[in-house]
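As described in the Methods, two query proteins were run sequentially through the folding procedure within a single session, without resetting any intermediate state between them. The first query and its resulting structure tokens are shown here.
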Amino acid sequence: MRFAANQPERYPGNSRTLGRFSELISEAVLRLPRLPQRGTLWIVTVVLALIVGLFVRSSLHRADAVRLAYGEQRSVLVATADIAPGTVIDESNTDMRNWPVGLLPQGAITSDSGRTATERIGKGEVIIDRRLSGDNGSGPETLIPAGGRAIAVPTGPASPAVGVGDRVDAFAPFDASRSGSAAASPTDPKFAARRVAKSARVIAVGPDSITIAVSALEAPFVAQASLDASIALVLVAPG
């Protein structure tokens, strides 16, 4: 949501009303008995001053109504361009702007950042903490969540096309030896491929592998599946 700085554009009816008043005053002056030129100019000046005063008063009332409707404002960081994951947040793509407190998302950044975007941020969006890296700087390491691990996973023709910042689930084949069953039924959900990582963030993309950030608990399972060359990645929809 954006707020225009040019307030008169928000009330186009005011300029039309003022123009109509001026026309009416001009007609009234023409119908007045002939007066000395100085007296006529004095009347027109007084009437126009009253009209301008009423116009200003009306605009101020509207401004007060806007303040009452939205409440206190706070200066926050707003994207001035589309920001891709892995991009450092700085003055080239953000600006500090006033925003109604009642409309601010949770975790809005209230100062210059220097951190890296971990998700796509659209132009005009308020920058929030959970969409930025934990530390300042750039590079894949800034996209690893606190306590997480980064693992390179081999890709092949069947792998989905992904980019930095995308989320994927990682699956490994069902292990019949661990289940006590010699054969897996294709219709039994218990014997489906097991998910070894959920909503892992892609932090780097290479020609033959991608690097994903996983939790410390997921890391051993993803590493084993990767060593077995039996891992499948599934792209997760945003949201």
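Immediately afterward, the second query was submitted; its sequence and tokens are:
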Amino acid sequence: MKYAKWIFVVLLISSLTSFVAKDKPTGGLNVGDVAPRYLPGASSYKLADQSVSPRKGEYVLLSFWAGYDAQSRLVNANLSYLLQHHDPENKVKMVSVSFDEYASVFRETVRKDKIAAPLCFAELSGEESSLYKRYRLHRGFTNYLLDSRGVIIAKNVNAKELASYLN
């Protein structure tokens, strides 16, 4: 009877902590996952292509966004600006992918937001595209920082965090 009170307390605490949310994100891919290799474009643009494949010590930033999503658009524009003006060594190659279903909306958004166009794509199938599904973006647009092996080393990177990778 003496220990019954303590056993009850331990059981109560352990049952309460089982309902606490874990640190693991619930949507999309996670840090440590290997990113899917295919990107949009006329012929399924591949990360393995020489123009996108980073060398050791370099990174690829995959930024997913849409013109109708103000938050993803703002993050994408800030990251693009940072890389255009503060990455003289070209350590990070940004691949910007829009899920706008109209090419005209995509082009106008890229122009207004001053996104670097060489690695900027529109996935005109929008949320129905295989890329959208492969990256599990149903819980919202995000970005992924990949190392030279294609492993996700950061997720939802903002301009301040990206600046630390550049230094």
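The chain has one domain: 31-166. We note this only descriptively and draw no conclusion about the first query from it.
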